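Milestone M4 deliverable, item 7.
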Amino acid sequence: MDYLEDMESTEETKNRIMMAAMGRILQYGFNKTTMAEIAKDCNMSSANIYRFFESKGSIVAEMAKGCFRDKEDALREVTRRPGMSAAERLEELVLQTLRSGHAMICERPKANEVIEYISVERHDILAQHKEVKQSLVAEILAEGKKSGEFDLQDIDTTAEAFLTATVFFACPINFDKRPLEELEQEAKAVIDLLVRGLKK
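Output delivered:
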């Protein structure tokens, strides 16, 4: 058993592995990273790392879950931010998602390989994240309906349609080195069109 592992809990060891994997994958890419390299970065044996993760894909899946949890916490703050209309919250929800995705791709272009892997191999993680986002949009829509700002019947269906209409701005793979300002202008135009359809 590795010395460092003797001093750590299982959760601490898993976190150490994920941090090492993140550093290597974001530098060299998912496809060029091996479990042996991750183990070496953790001062672990190649065999021992499999006691904690069955593959580099499972490591990336845990990384993605953590990333989405952080994003969801930030979006909850926007959803419940005081002093904003429902329309303003919807816009900020989309723009914050766009900005964080754009920053990630600009600073860490190899993250695209992780996104592609999760999109193809672990669609369940994306589906769970979408459910959370849809519930937050529904919360904003419900408040807008209650205040008289919006006129709508089926909140859940409308929330799903809103996410579908703005999904382009939630997918960093779509950005293709385009300036953030240009993407923000497009997002605002789409949101303005959607919000006008929701208002009385």
